[in-house]
Every structure is written in C-alpha cells, then in structure tokens.
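Structure tokens please, single chain.
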Amino acid sequence: MARRRRKNSRSPRRSSVRVVRVTRTKGSGASQTTSYRAAGLSITGVGPTGRIASSRPTIRATVRDEGTNLSKRDIRLYLDGAEKIRFHYDRVSGRLSYNVRGALSPGTHRVKIETEAESGDSRGRSNSTARKGWTFTVAR
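Here you go.
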C-alpha cells in the first residue's frame, strides 16, 4: 500500500523554479550587453554578445544577490564548456570579468555563468540559484 504525503509536511524544498526575463539589451557588437534577472539573484550586463572582431575578448557580467553578499566562490564561469577560475569578481559592485588568455578561433563560443547563494529570513534558510548562458561569434 502506497503512503500518501501529508499536505502540511515540513520537508525542505529540493528545487525551486526561477523566472528569468530579459530586462534590456543595448549596444552592438563587442560592446552589446543584455541584462537578465532571476528572483533575488541577478545576472546583468553580460557580454560580449553577437558578432565581435577581437579573438581575445573580455567576458563580463554583473552578478548580484539582493539578500546576501556573494563571493567569487559562489560563482562558476565556463567558456566553451571549460570552467575558468582566474576571473575577477568585485563583491561591492558585483562586476565579474575574465580576460581570455589565448586567441579564440573564429566561430561561435558559449559562455555560462552559474551562481548559488544561501539566504535566510524569519522562515529559515534557503538556497537560490541562477544560470545564464549566451553565445558570441568571433569574426573570421
């Protein structure tokens, strides 16, 4: 006989749904930025996006959490699937930057940022996560 789960169960949430929406896009080429927001965490001003001329761009974003003070260890940055640990993150401004070390090949490249933050309120502690991925193309 299968057990039914009680409605008032106080088991912790295992996952949460985050609504991500584009809040604005401005500029063009290597200077184009797009802003995204996910609940209390936000990943905004990501770049570069679109078609760029430089094979050694600076990858940038602003990563913040309204409820906590994020640190670099709360953030993961990936370029073409490889995690990059030598990025700079300013806790005060939330600005993240990564200078690509070797020349990227012509074509499309993928960037992904993942962040997780623990926050607390009168109802207890909870974890929030945000992920943002985008592509840019190095001109031939």
